[in-house]
Amino acid sequence: MKKSLTIHDIAKLADVSSATVSRVLSNSSYPVSPELRQKILRIAKEYNYVPNMLGKQLKTKTSMTIGVIIPTITNLFYSSIILGVEEIARKNNYQVLLCNSFQDPALEDKYIQAMFEKQVRGLVISSISSDKRQLKHFIDMGLNVVAVDQKMGMDDVSEIDFDYYKGGHQATRHMIGKGHHRIAYVTAPLDRPSRISIHEGYLAAMKEAGLEPLVQEGGIESYSGTYEFENGKLLTRKLLGREGERPTAIFACNDMTAFGVINELSAEGLKVPDDMSVMGFDGIDFGAMMNPPLTSVLQPTYEMGRLACNMLLDMLIDSKKAETGIMLQPKLVERESVADLRG
Amino acid sequence: MKKSLTIHDIAKLADVSSATVSRVLSNSSYPVSPELRQKILRIAKEYNYVPNMLGKQLKTKTSMTIGVIIPTITNLFYSSIILGVEEIARKNNYQVLLCNSFQDPALEDKYIQAMFEKQVRGLVISSISSDKRQLKHFIDMGLNVVAVDQKMGMDDVSEIDFDYYKGGHQATRHMIGKGHHRIAYVTAPLDRPSRISIHEGYLAAMKEAGLEPLVQEGGIESYSGTYEFENGKLLTRKLLGREGERPTAIFACNDMTAFGVINELSAEGLKVPDDMSVMGFDGIDFGAMMNPPLTSVLQPTYEMGRLACNMLLDMLIDSKKAETGIMLQPKLVERESVADLRG
DNA sequence: CTGTTAGCGCGTTCAA
DNA sequence: TTGAACGCGCTAACAG
Q1: What angle do CA B143, B145, B147 make, to 5 degrees?
Q2: Does the CB of B172 have a partner CB in chain A at under 8 Å?
Q3: Where is the HTH lacI-type domain (chains A, B) (predicted)?
Q4: How far apart are CA A3 and CA B218, in angstroms?
Q5: What is the pTM of this model?
Q6: Whether B117 and A50 lie within 8 Å, measured CB to CB
Q7: Contact between B119 and A52 (Cβ < 8 Å)
Q8: Which domains does chain A have, with CATH numbers?
Q9: Three-state SS at A1
Q10: What Å distances lie between residue B180 and A34, B172, B173, CA to CA?
Q11: Angle at B140 between CA B138 and CA B141, to 5 degrees
Q12: Mutate to test the interface with A, among B6, B118, B254, B320 (most CBs of A within 10 A)
């Protein structure tokens, strides 16, 4: 194992001072004569010099690293956001420290602390922890935070928001427009802002149309990876077991849940959309691959990631305070899982 | 924005030397009197002391960070590996620097360089770049590498391998055992070890049974996220358009491709498995959610990630050389997409 | 233009 | 048991 050299080693080899080496190798704008510059560059290359960023960062107080905290990377929704974050980070020579919080507030706090210790000064987070004291403290210490997916409602936190309410409303309107009157809403626990907003959008649209809402809410969440799917199946089973007239359409809080709904319907011998219509929420790629292709509300996750990272870098570079925030708009993608009941 | 304090600040407040503070706050085994220890701990807590890891790491030459380079995080196969890596990393107080290489060798090299500069000394990688010189160089400089998914065949690189050959063989045997004779193999470009091995396993099993292989290979790969699905559709279309007798079963190189196959078959009015059987490879969760549930070869991705990270940490801590490597065994999960043609 | 010097925050000898 | 002093690798202020 070879020992890696420092600018001092290079300096000795080139018979100059380490300051000059630093100025050349760090692309400083400080003037250095062309001859020395060439010489230093040549030697650095010859000896495979690799800078030690820890030294540099300790001095300049900037770790070119941003942190990302999301519930779990195996959820396509989040991995897509991360991809967007990373693209922008890469283009600006930043790197991404990834943390899966599994929605565990303690773990979330632990990660934030660890990243702050590593001098990470920028954070993209989807947090559901309600106690923001620790985060607040780090923000006071200079941490910049952009929230995605789940809004935080904190002064110093910028938000890349999505209009979940409008999305829920729009989806419901769509089904009503197709002639559906009995529309059920099937959802994972209403324990966070995004889900609550979709739910409210649904309720509002139903009320406006003078229709009776029918909500089936899931129980405690797990992180088995197939939770949402299983939850969709379970809630559908409950829904079908209910007394009274069956709904003609089921609206699910996200696409994975919708897949579960469809699967259960199929197991019960019900065809989608002939016997029952299904509407998703997310617009993940998989929806287009299902049979039938799932009608859904598109969330521009990749774009959310890009915007979040850009906003964060702006904050880091100009050290300006939280921007006003961005509200992304939903877009309904009509595929084939919702039947037209009119005529 | 408050200024964060250093051990010197704490030292002044406690009226001791910074050395003593360091010994207490870094949990050194060095003896410090209980009184001073308590006093320092109290003050550190009171003033919300946060250590600066850059200083520590510069001194101790260890960044508690490992790097992960995979093609793209939006592929469930890889995100699941990462989750396993991160779990083990977390338990050992390491953090994960994530890089999506998009199978771009130049980007891969750039990331490796950047991580090495940040003093990352451990790397989990799924690489398809053929030029390993740069990596080799960093290994000589002290980088520890564990390869997952794609084997590298380098002396100093440990490998978490999966028996792709056996998997391909096993899957093919399974279909043959169900009475299939005309079995097509549909695959993304055979441009990397894993795919080549599955293909060879298929060929061998067919040959052993005295059957004629029928391979349909895909063209240039993109990273659209739906590439594999589209590729499955395209290849199926080509396959069905061929002259001669149709196969009774299609074996796809991975589950996403299999979903495309099924989708296309369905579009052509062919039912799975009644009119055509389909076999996948991966065993991703989604397979169980499809209709029909996909028979596939299970790869323990999460376990691969865990093993890779454990192996890496062993190398980092004991600085022992590459272990012998681990070969994970395939396991066939029979679901409902392969028909039994016998009697 | 170049070099000397002084830290960044921390851990770790070596003396006391 | 404690503290003074040094250095990890680098940049930046100041002199020359």
Answers
A1: 160
A2: no
A3: 5-60
A4: 46
A5: 0.93
A6: yes
A7: yes
A8: 7-60 (1.10.260.40), 65-162+301-329 (3.40.50.2300), 164-299 (3.40.50.2300)
A9: coil
A10: 73, 9, 9
A11: 60
A12: B118
Residue identified by tokens 């441009």 is B191
Instruction: Give the pLDDT of chain B (343 residues) as one tens digit per residue.
Output: 778 899 999 999 999 999 999 999 999 899 999 999 999 999 999 999 999 999 999 999 998 999 999 999 998 899 999 999 999 999 999 999 999 999 899 999 999 999 999 999 999 999 988 889 999 999 999 999 999 999 898 988 999 999 999 999 999 999 999 999 999 999 999 999 999 999 999 999 999 999 999 999 998 887 777 889 999 999 999 999 999 899 999 999 999 999 999 999 999 999 999 999 999 999 998 898 888 899 999 999 999 999 999 999 999 987 666 567 899 999 999 999 999 998 7
Selected residues 283-322 of chain B with any CB under 8 Å from a CB in chain A = 285-286, 288-289, 291
Which residues in 27-86 of chain A line strand D, with CB less than 7 A from it?
28, 51-52, 54-56, 58-60
Question: How far does the CA of B115 sit from the C1' of D16, in Å?
Answer: 39
Spatial separation of the C-alpha atoms in residues A260 and A268, rounded to whole Å? 12
Structure tokens at B16: 């001791």
Between A and B, how many CB-CB pairs are < 8 A? Answer: 138
Distance B56 CA to C2 C1' (A): 32
- Pairing relation of β-strands A95-100 and B95-100? antiparallel
